[in-house]
Design a protein that fits this description.
Layout: E1 2-7, H1 10-19, E2 27-32, E3 42-43, H2 51-61, E4 65-68, H3 71-75, H4 78-84, E5 89-90, H5 94-101, H6 103-113, E6 120-123, H7 126-136, E7 140-144, E8 153-156, H8 159-170, E9 181-185, E10 190-199, E11 203-211, E12 214-216, E13 220-223, E14 228-231, H9 238-258, E15 264-274, E16 277-284, H10 291-298, H11 303-311, E17 326-334, H12 351-355, E18 359-363, E19 366-369, E20 372-375, E21 379-387, H13 390-401, E22 409-410, H14 417-429
Parallel strand pairs: 1-2, 1-4, 2-3, 4-5
Antiparallel strand pairs: 6-9, 7-8, 7-9, 10-11, 10-15, 11-14, 12-13, 14-17, 15-16, 17-21, 17-22, 18-21, 19-20
This protein binds adenosine monophosphate (AMP) and glycine.
């Protein structure tokens, strides 16, 4: 099969890396890709949002499947534009991608179908929002309705902070994405990410992961796209997985089908494990980045076969095999990220780190310039490793990080801390 992956991040590098192992893959393209993806796929200077250009290329190259990585093309309806042109695409339609594209839509769907999530109120008027925030008190969560590159959520610890966030968002900080707000109850508990592959009717659980969203050690600093992840999340026991499938994932898939928006693709649930059971924080309609990197390191089965089956509505009967091992990914970002950062700094030879046992390096924002690797984004590299425990995977990943000479980069030094503490605790008790 000839496959085209859309996107340019670490997630897409991991998808290309996993697809390359498929016995049915004959040719792999990525648009636009990055400096690392270029080593395993043919990179194309095509914009993932440019449907006519994508269709022309896919028809000429006889592409059998397009795998859409990021949310923006999904929310923009690229999957159905390709399908309408007779090109098979993996990923939800715009109507189904509204689960991520409109937080208000997601909350209303949950309310209509009894899916456990934080209590909420939608508001598009500032005076109304202010009155609601004052009445509800803090802590309280303020969200822009639409896509805001992961920056549209404020978990406010005071009423003043919540009022300021509401005013900023409704005042146009995120453009049209912020013309409406969701104001939510603040959930307490441990956060986990859970992934399922969905074919419109059937949902197949993938695996769990835990992400580290803030820029600095100790979960401090500003929110980012994700500074590191590991899988599985120890908090996500088999019993909890069943509970999440039964109370959250399957009811959502059924609700979407019944409402005429069947969901096909990867459903990524951000969950809070609360005292009252797991509750949905948010949905994404794609793999997470960097969660995808650790999932792909653990997936034993043929990814391409699974994606083809999901797209064709044939997931019933498919089972996926996962390695028992843990996987952990440390993101190396450009100094300044998630604020302003410089592009173009030189990254030293990655070969020694990449050659370390059980280590895989995924590129997130790099390009090759005059034969040399340079940084070309905020998140630049994902240094990932596997091991019998998260502790081992973490030690291997950081040993590899320390072999990379890039003085304009930084990373958190505590990725996996929760699981490592649990493992230490378990070892002490054993
Ligand atoms: P999002 O951009 O929707 O992923 O939200 C960013 C982060 O905000 C989540 O990963 C949570 O840590 C936090 N968050 C969002 N909604 C809530 C909520 N209702 N209660 C507590 N934390 C939340
Ligand atoms: N790492 C979080 C996300 O991909 O949305």
């Amino acid at each position: 099969m000839k496959v085209l992956v859309l996107g340019s991040g670490g997630r897409e590098h991991a998808l290309c890396w996993a697809l390359r192992r498929s016995p049915t893959l004959s040719r792999l393209y990525c648009a636009p890709g990055n400096g690392g993806i270029a080593a395993i796929a043919e990179c194309l200077a095509l914009d993932p949002l440019d449907a006519p250009a994508l269709i022309a290329f896919c028809q000429e190259a006889a592409i059998d499947l397009v795998v859409i990585g990021p949310e923006a093309p999904l929310v923009a309806g690229i999957a159905e534009r390709l399908e309408e042109a007779g090109i098979a695409a993996f990923g939800p339609t715009a109507a189904a991608a509204a689960l991520e594209g409109s937080k208000g839509f997601m909350k209303d769907l949950c309310a209509r179908h009894g899916i456990p999530t934080a209590r909420y109120r939608r508001c598009d008027d500032l005076a109304q929002a202010q009155a609601h925030i004052r009445a509800a008190g803090a802590p309280i969560v303020i969200k822009a309705d639409g896509l805001a590159a992961g920056k549209g959520v404020v978990v406010a610890v005071s009423v003043e902070e919540a009022l300021a966030a509401a005013a900023e968002i409704l005042g146009g900080k995120f453009g049209a994405a912020g013309s409406s707000l969701v104001i939510e109850e603040c959930l307490q508990g441990e956060e986990v990410s859970f992934f399922a592959l969905v074919d419109g009717r059937t949902a197949l659980p993938l695996a769990s992961a835990q992400d580290h969203k803030t820029a600095l050690d100790g979960d401090r600093g500003p929110n980012t796209g994700g500074m590191g992840a590991y899988s599985p999340a120890p908090a996500m026991t088999p019993a909890l997985t069943e509970a999440v499938m039964d109370s959250i994932i399957r009811p959502t898939v059924t609700a979407m089908a019944d409402e005429g928006r069947p969901f096909r693709g990867v459903l990524f649930a951000g969950l809070m494990l609360t005292a009252e059971g797991p509750k949905l924080i948010e949905y994404n309609v794609r793999f997470g980045d960097p969660e995808c990197q650790v999932l792909m390191l653990r997936l034993e089965s043929d990814l391409l076969e699974a994606l083809v089956a999901a797209r064709a509505g044939r997931l019933d009967g498919i089972t996926l095999a996962w390695r028992e091992q843990a996987a952990l990914c440390v993101v190396m970002a450009a100094r300044g990220y998630p604020g302003a950062y410089a592009r173009g700094s030189l990254i030293g030879d990655l070969a020694p780190a990449a050659a370390a046992a059980n280590v895989t390096i995924f590129h997130a924002g790099t390009r090759i310039e005059d034969g040399r690797l340079v940084a070309d984004g905020g998140r630049v590299l994902g240094v990932a490793a596997t091991g019998d425990s998260v502790t081992k995977a973490q030690a291997r990943a950081y040993a590899a990080v320390d072999l990379i000479a890039w003085d304009q980069g930084f990373c958190r030094r505590d990725i996996g801390w929760r699981a490592v503490a649990r493992e230490k605790d378990g070892a002490t008790k054993a």
